[in-house]
User: Fold this.
Amino acid sequence: MWKLKIGADTVREGGDHQWLRSVNNHLGRQVWEYHPEFGTPEELQQIEDARKGFWDNRFETKHSSDLLMRIQFAKENPCVTNLPQLKVRDAEEVTEEVVVTTLRRAINFYSTIQAHDGHWPGDYGGLMFRLPGLVITLSIAGALNAVLSIEHQREMCRYLYTHQARILLM
Assistant:
């Protein structure tokens, strides 16, 4: 199962990082790690359902909405309350109760997807120009397989193929 590691956790729990230095304790650093032994059957099924949902709707919804991250964070930072979603029609007056409930829902939502170091991680769509450069550089240096696990290589290919298919259909 894929797990998002953030900040100093990316160095503390990982292997040999003797060359990795930081003046801010790796604040904001985000690394996805693959652990085949992690996850209950229900969690793995939830991940597979999210992956399938993204694949099935990839032509209508162009972005992943960070579903894997949201699933992980929902487990790590469970929502404290379950507040109703209140709708106000055009002719209705906005009451204090509606405003307070809506604000509480927003705070709960953003608290759930906030990382332990205080920032809100997310997918950066600019990888289409960074990822090929990384792969070319690692390939030229002869370090492709040493730096990227086979699981990372598969996910990178899946990412590129998905975006390639999306661009061709536009």
